[in-house]
Amino acid sequence: IGNTVLHILVLQPNKTFACHMYSLILSYDRSKEGPGSLELIPNNEGLSPFKLAGVEGNTVMFQYLMQKRKQNLWSFGPLSTVLYDITEIDSWAEDQSFLELIVSTKKREARQILDLTPVKELVSLKWNMYGRPYFCFLALFYILYMVCFTMCCVYRPLKPRTGNRTSSRDNTVYVQKMLQESYVEYEDELRLVGELITVIGAVVILVLEIPDILRVGAAKYFGQTILGGPFHIIVITYACMILVTMVMRLTSTTGEVVPMSFALVLGWCNVMYFARGFQMLGPFTIMIQKMIFGDLMRFCWLMAVVILGFASAFYIIFQTENPENLGQFYNYPMSLFTTFELFLTIIDGPANYDVDLPFMYSVVYFAFAIIATLLMLNLLIAMMGDTHWRVAHEQDELWRAQVVATTVMLERKLPRCLWPRSGICGREFGLGDRWYLRIEDRVDPNKHKMMRYTEAFKAQERDNYDKGSEKLESNGDTLCKKGLPALSLSRNTSRTSSHRGWEILRRNT
């Protein structure tokens, strides 16, 4: 019951009341240390009160709980050293990481906790010491891997075509070699080494990605933009295309260019994932994802309807015409593709003015130009501009969340020997087996002195106002008759108290 009440207090809108009641309930907890403590008992979702405060974005409760956990190590003048308990914050030994919960939640308030002490210092320590070097090395390794795969595709085994052409539009001059002919010369063996590296890399990608899908869930794993959800879809699809290409090569099946082309596009697009390691480029990946899966997906439905309707109209108009003179609409698939190019203004209106054009072509093309080019394309630009404006106001916050997600990902993937635990064990200071982060803080005495003077001025003005109010209540008739002198006296008194305060400030300076 006590643990349930603690979870309820974390969700309370009245933060001051919740903090006082939280302390009151914990004062009756007999097992304040160890696994039996009320603060360490999780709810049905596996969240302790501390983690729940982070997921809900309750910064007041989070700071209150952190103040309870900190230990003042020493203080000397304006300098002080504090030990913050990072037992539930550090993701090193946690199955359900606190940092991963913050960046994966849909509440924007939760990401504000990344700016609070000691979360900000812990993430900065992990990223600067281990995360950034490993991430840059991984980016370089992936680019070299994609260069190797691209060279294998460019120099894939081909031979001249020997069969007769079946159509005047047939333009094929090379065909794919059979498996027995593909690995004969020295250049083929060199290409085989690159192909083996490519296949091994695809298998490693699947081995690393599938356990995370099973642990987190497909919907959450692919749906979270900050966690790199779309890029996970891209890299898994890329690995599957590599394996399909390998099977087609081993079975001498024609048409391997289809999965190979998809793999090249997806593999090189995945390079944008590594832009999140840089503050200048990281927010742009979020912007691209939001535009593609937000604005562009909604716009594609409207675009498909318009293209389908006008492509059908163009095909019907030119269905009775000679395709040799007007070949852009000679069949229905070609009509769809030509209309798509017209929609994006890639080509001009396909018309042969050496022959008589149907009258309806001019009418339909005029309506298409007004709807597609002037209306819908400008609508897409306006939608993307609005998305850019919204993301630009959150770019620093989004980049910090990307850094946290990348750090947690690398910490889970890399062996423990390459990523030691951050912080200091509490045994060194007689604080048990908990882990702490030492943070040095410098208190500016001038700032606090100025704050005290400001409060003193406010107190003097408040006292003068109270005294003036008492005089008005006791001598109402007299003050009504002598209003102007009383007002002048009040101003002089206020001026005298302010003058006294400034004299104190000059003397101390």
UniProtKB/TrEMBL annotation:
Checking InterPro entries in the record gives: Ankyrin_rpt-contain_sf, Ion_trans_dom, TRPV, TRPV5, TRPV5/TRPV6
Major localization class: membrane
Any GO BP annotation? calcium ion import across plasma membrane
Residue ranges annotated as transmembrane are 134-158, 192-210, 231-251, 257-275, 296-318, 359-381
Which controlled-vocabulary keywords does the entry list? ANK repeat, Membrane, Metal-binding, Phosphoprotein, Repeat, Transmembrane, Transmembrane helix
According to Swiss-Prot or TrEMBL, what is its membrane topology? Multi-pass membrane protein
Give any GO molecular function from the UniProt entry.
Answer: metal ion binding
The segment(s) forming the Ion transport domain are: 135-394
Which compartments does it reside in? Membrane
Supply one GO CC term from the record: plasma membrane
User: Source organism's superkingdom?
Assistant: Eukaryota
The entry's protein name is TRPV5 protein
